[in-house]
Amino acid sequence: MDFHRHVSEEALPAVVESDLSSDEDESSVASSDDFSPSEGVQDEVPRRQNLQWKFKGMTIWLELEEFDNDITRVIHDLALDNGVLAIPKSHTTAIYGMDHITEEEAKARLQTFAKEIKVWPSFRAPTGVVQDIAVAGNPGQVCSIAWAQLTLASSPEHESALDALYGAFYGEGSSEQVSRHKPWTPHNSVVYDNPENTVLSLMDVLVHMMKYPTLLSNERRVQAISLWSTEGKMEDWKCLDRVEFF
């Protein structure tokens, strides 16, 4: 979802700040010297309370190409080893929280858009690994959540595609299209937790990601675009429609 603790080393991507994170004084920097991939995780961990934040509206997700299910696997590994609920589907959020049209109208617009665009521009390899906490009401933060992500980079092609998507769902020249945050700061979240006493840490996320080298090294095509109801808590989310590009 659209929401720093950072890593920078030759074997890892350079770190970029999350678009919802604003408190640089609380961020920390780690290097690959700070941990060993041989460090283990607990076999059994206490079950955390499910994420309590209530999201809203309908949301458009981009579903990235996977290599031997690498993103899905790290999502489920992190959920299991931290005792949290797994994100239901790997995704990069394009538009969040729409409530100005019905579900049926949103489905129709998704189908029309997908036919017109035919393919969403590919993403280069991730530029960063981020773990942070957002608190609703802080500058640029729209929800209270702890999370970790693969940070992606936008491009002129992505900006054009996102403008077209906003035009399809809000109307060409709409205030939403004109005022959307630019440049886009896409990311693919891999784990969510409640912000209070979160068990998430950058080190743990890195250890898990090192199991799947393709997470940090591979360019990815966008396999599908999907429409989700994100009304309520994460366990309430449901896919309304999905269009595959390949």
Extended strand count = 9
Q: What percent of the residues sit in helical stretches (DSSP H or I)?
A: 10-25%
Any idea what the radius of gyration is? 18 Å
Instruction: State the helix count.
Output: 6
Describe the structure.
With 246 residues, this protein is α+β, with helices and mostly antiparallel strands. Helix content is 24%, strand content 23%. The strands form three sheets. A four-stranded antiparallel β-sheet has the order 4-3-8-9, covered by helices on one side. Strand 8 and strand 9 form a beta hairpin. Helix 2 (103-117) runs antiparallel to helix 3. The chain is globular, with a radius of gyration of 18 Å. The model is unreliable at 3-42 (pLDDT under 50).
Quick description:
It contains six helices and nine strands; from the N terminus they run E-E-E-H-E-H-E-E-H-H-E-H-H-E-E.
